[in-house]
């Protein structure tokens, strides 16, 4: 059995305060027996303000606060604390890219033995491209609790993202996000972006028969109302733990990683989502014929 925790984080642009909140929630997760705790997209420095229009000062803030991995000052505090607690932690950050003006939207995975690896957001939205470069790979990392693959926010709107991670051997799909209620009424039960968030989480789990863990900001932050709803989804697409909407905190669940995958495969008559794939027929998807839709 494995205990997983996921945070609905109160956002901050004060990196010292944000780091403090990370360390406190890691303590809380460890006290609950968690072996893994997950934080949102750019949880370390705070997701940039003004989701639909970026301004030069916001981009400068991102550049100024970006750190290297794994030796950035605040990155190191989290890496070292995870070692002290003997747990795994996943958090989001602005990562320096090694060249002037190049930074990435990155998730960091660290564990009881120190830094394990990182993932750079592949699907970077059009306004986000003013700030971040695209990543270009879908790494999967072996850990003591299972094989972990990561994705960030917009990535989960593509079924190819989690399918790639599953085919590379991921048991646990971890998605950090900064997902607001950006249109319509601000009721999390009826807001369309709230409904889509939950739909994607459950579909990405069920269509791959893998565990799915999401982490989001919660409440008002940077001019938006963030949904919260950090949750743990089983390989049949069932929510086993959630923070609920809008409220900061932790969702914690004790799960059997291997048994959950085996149960889903048995109920669905074998690992058919791998076995019955027909990539030889996916001509438009693979680029062998032109797509009829131009975005």
Outline of this structure?
With 295 residues, this protein is α/β, with parallel strands linked by helices.
Structure write-up:
This protein is of the alpha/beta class and 295 residues long. 28% of the residues lie in helices and 27% in strands. It contains 8 helices and 13 strands. Strands 1, 2, 3, 4, 5, 6, 7, 8, 9, 10, 11, 12 and 13 form a 13-stranded mixed β-sheet that branches. Helix 1 packs parallel to helix 3 (73-85). The protein is globular, with a radius of gyration of 18 Å. The model has no long low-confidence stretch (mean pLDDT 94).
How does the SSE layout of this entry go?
Layout lengths: L1 E8 L5 H17 L4 E3 L17 H10 L7 H13 L2 E9 L6 E9 L2 E7 L19 E4 L2 E7 L6 H9 L4 E5 L15 H15 L4 E11 L2 E4 L3 E3 L5 E4 L6 E7 L1 H11 L4 H4 L7 H4 L9
Parallel strand pairs: 1-2, 1-9, 2-3, 7-8, 8-9
Antiparallel strand pairs: 1-13, 3-4, 4-5, 6-7, 9-10, 9-11, 11-12
Describe the structure using short key phrases.
295 residues; alpha/beta; Nitrilase/N-carbamoyl-D-aminoacid amidohydrolase; 13-stranded mixed sheet
Structural class: alpha/beta
CATH architecture label: 4-Layer Sandwich
CATH superfamily: Carbon-nitrogen hydrolase
Number of DSSP strand runs: 13
The mean pLDDT is: 94
- The number of domains: 1
Rg, Cα atoms, Å? 18 Å
Q: Assign a percent range to the helix content.
A: 25-40%
CATH class: Alpha Beta
Distance between the termini: 44 Å
- Tally of helical runs: 8
Strand content: 25-35%
Query: Low-confidence spans: pLDDT under 50, at least 5 residues?
Result: none
């Amino acid at each position: 059995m494995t205990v997983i925790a996921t945070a609905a984080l109160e956002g901050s642009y004060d990196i010292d305060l944000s780091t403090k909140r990370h360390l406190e929630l890691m303590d809380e997760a460890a006290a609950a027996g968690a072996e893994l705790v997950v934080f949102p997209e750019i949880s370390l420095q705070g997701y940039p303000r003004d989701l639909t229009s970026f301004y030069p000062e916001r981009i400068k803030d991102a550049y100024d606060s970006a750190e290297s991995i794994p030796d950035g000052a605040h990155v190191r505090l989290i890496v070292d604390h995870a070692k002290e607690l003997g747990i795994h932690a996943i958090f989001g950050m602005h990562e320096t890219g090694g060249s002037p003006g190049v930074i990435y939207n990155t998730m960091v995975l660290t564990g009881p033995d120190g830094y394990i690896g990182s993932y750079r957001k592949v699907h970077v939205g059009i306004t986000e491209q003013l700030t971040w470069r695209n990543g270009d790979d879908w790494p999967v990392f072996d850990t003591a609790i299972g094989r972990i693959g990561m994705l960030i926010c917009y990535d989960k709107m593509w079924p190819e993202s989690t399918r790639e991670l599953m085919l590379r051997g991921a048991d646990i799909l971890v998605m950090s996000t900064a997902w607001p209620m950006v249109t319509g009424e601000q009721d999390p039960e009826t807001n369309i972006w709230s409904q889509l968030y939950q739909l994607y989480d459950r579909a990405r789990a069920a269509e791959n028969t893998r565990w799915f863990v999401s982490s989001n900001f919660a409440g008002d932050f940077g001019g938006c109302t963030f949904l919260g709803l950090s949750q743990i989804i089983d390989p049949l697409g069932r929510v086993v733990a959630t923070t609920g909407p809008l409220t900061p905190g932790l969702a914690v669940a004790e799960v059997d990683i291997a048994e959950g995958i085996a149960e889903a495969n048995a109920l669905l008559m074998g690992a058919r989502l791998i076995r019955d794939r027909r990539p030889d027929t996916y001509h438009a998807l693979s680029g062998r014929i032109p797509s009829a839709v131009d975005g």
